[in-house]
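Cross-check.
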Amino acid sequence: MQPNKITFLPNGNLQIAGEQGVREISTTDAEKVYEALSGFDNASLDALLQVGDRAAEKLGKLFMTVLTGVATQKNIVKGSITNVKGDVKIGDTFVVEYKIEVATPHIVPKIIVNPTHVVLNQIKGRTNNLLHIKTTLENSDKIVVQNGVGGIGKTVLAASYVAQHKSNYDHLAWINLDIRYDEAAQGKIVYSPLQKAFVDNRTLTDNLGITASTHALSNDSKYVQGFSIILNKLQDLKGKHLLIIDDNANVGITQNDLTLLSQLLDNWKILLLSRQRFTTPLVDNLKELDYLDEKAAKEVFRQYHPSASDGELDQLFLSVQKHPLLLILIASNVHQSNGTLSIKKVATNFKKRSQHPDEGIAFELVNPRYKGEQTLWRHLHYVFDLSLANFSTDELHLLRHFAVLPLEGFSVPVVAVLIQSPYE
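Predicted model, tokenized:
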């Protein structure tokens, strides 16, 4: 069998002799170069990438730029398909021979990225919401969005859905958006937080078998091109799949993000958890996740303070919204106080403060997406003001992800000012 060859011709063109026959292409006409390279087999493109390392100047910047772009679109990792041998001789003509090496195919695991770990027995009173997610994902051809204020239980709800229905999908990936822009560099950034979260997720790129491709990209194009590589790989997977995107840091999803994600809808169901409301026709918005009903609220509270009576909780609920995270914080601190803090004392304090709220600090610091988040901030403020000592690491983590608190850490003096409390 004749070897595969790449020949530089005197007229500046390239002649490629490979599995698809002999073809001659220009190296200077961008449109013709793109058209030709897009039709090349992967082995020839891989060989050209390797030749480009040694003859980039002769091939020219235009040709190399188009070649790199086409190879990126096809997820070709240089050196993974072909083996170029022999010396490249710079001159009017020279021939490079290459052979095709069949690599072991990469097998993508069923769980591409594990769901966020949550305690599933925390979910109470959400049976109808779970059913609504199931039926909407099954019947919608759009991105499905679950809205709700911070700490209301969106993540736990989605994790519960996954636990119940993951067997219905061939592949599953869960992506957390927990990064923000560097504010000083925002004017220079061309990618979105969503694109960065995907490309920087090493578990995702490793399990898709494309880490070498994404890491080879330059800083200027890493996240835009890397996100494109990931989407192409996800699209290539056969079957029925589920992608959950949890905007747990409230970084925000752009219209362009939604447009790019919609490319996956032929074989992927997408569930987006967000505090953000969308009006674009690209999404189906589920009913906003609301506060718990009384029965569920009591069950959640008793998970952390089992001895709470109906009477105590009835009194508490007159002043406190039945918000899962808030109830967990109050219950756990009452339980850990060894009798120094009672539910009655918490209820009395909330009632007193709600009658004479000091809202200045709350409304000065908060620009919430939801009106309800202003109320939640007051509740959280009161919890702090009760001097409920020694929050655990997990509780502080939850507080940082609350709707009204930024992710940055605060020093003790700053916190003292925020909660209007003296410190030593």
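The chain is about 45% helix and 15% strand. The first helix runs from residue 30 to 38. Passed to J.P. for a second look.
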